[in-house]
Amino acid sequence: MMPSRPDGIVVAIDGPSGAGKSTIARLLAERLGYIQIDTGAMYRAAALLLSQAGIDLDDFERVEQFCQNIDIRLELVSGKQVVLANGMDVTDKIRTPEMSLLTSKTSALKPVRDALLKAQQLMGNRGGVVLEGRDIGTVVFPDAEVKFYLSASVEERARRRCEELLGKGEQITLAETIADVAKRDRQDSERDIAPLRQADDAILIDSSRLTIDEVLAEMATLCRKKREKLEATL
Ligand code: DC
């Protein structure tokens, strides 16, 4: 492999919430034999820690000091990815609609982004990883070998999220979910630091009318080609 990336290439998948990034990233990582890094889960875990500690989000110094001491890890336990925040398993707790909205707010804070940026670069710089998030191709790994921007219409993304939440027994309507998704889109793309944006060299994939298998097949082929091309030039 490349000397700078002994374990393989870095694959970046960015895009708005509900575009199917997590499912696609997991399946793509499985196909390539790579590790999946769900950076959204890391932002959610940081939001949970801040809220549990009762930190005033307007107090920059307090947030900064708190973030210097947080430890967020992703670990594979019996084939399932587990999110550990300061040693606590928070995998399920971070997946509520309230946590989604709170995370959209806390992920705009510089100390939170600085702490997680460093952790994500450390986790991925050897390569052999599929990272998904909002700023992977633009900020975390601007030199990623393959970048995708996965999108879908607001209505389609809200429909998928609503189905998922109803399946978990949450009481929510499609109209509420559309409003939530649109609000998070706004918060994620209008923030000052590392806003959601398609990198100039990212491949745009609109998943609105494609099945998971179709999206996956297209992405896996592109990754393989890139990997082979890089290996051939060594
Ligand atoms: O992908 P997700 O829905 O689990 O992400 C949760 C929140 O975290 C979302 O509002 C955007 C934010 N996020 C971010 O700002 N940067 C990332 N790299 C990943 C997620």
Describe, in plain words, how this protein is organized in 3D.
It contains 9 helices and 8 strands. The chain is α/β, with parallel strands linked by helices. The chain has a single domain (10-227), classed as 3-Layer(aba) Sandwich (Rossmann fold), CATH 3.40.50. The strands form 2 sheets. Strands 2-6-1-7-8 form a 5-stranded parallel beta sheet, sandwiched between helices. Strand 4 and strand 5 (88-89) form a beta hairpin. Helix 1 (21-32) crosses helix 9 (212-232), helix 3 runs parallel beside helix 5 and helix 4 runs parallel beside helix 8 (174-190). The termini are close together. Residues 17, 39-41, 43-44, 103-104, 107, 133-135, 184, 188 line the site of 2'-deoxycytidine-5'-monophosphate (DC).
Features:
single chain, 234 residues, alpha/beta, Rossmann fold, 5-stranded parallel sheet, 3-stranded antiparallel sheet, globular, binds 2'-deoxycytidine-5'-monophosphate
CATH top level is: Alpha Beta
**Mean pLDDT across all residues, rounded?**
94
Oligomerization state: single chain
CATH architecture: 3-Layer(aba) Sandwich
Query: What's the CATH H-level homologous superfamily?
Result: P-loop containing nucleotide triphosphate hydrolases
Summarize the biggest pleated sheet: 5 strands, parallel
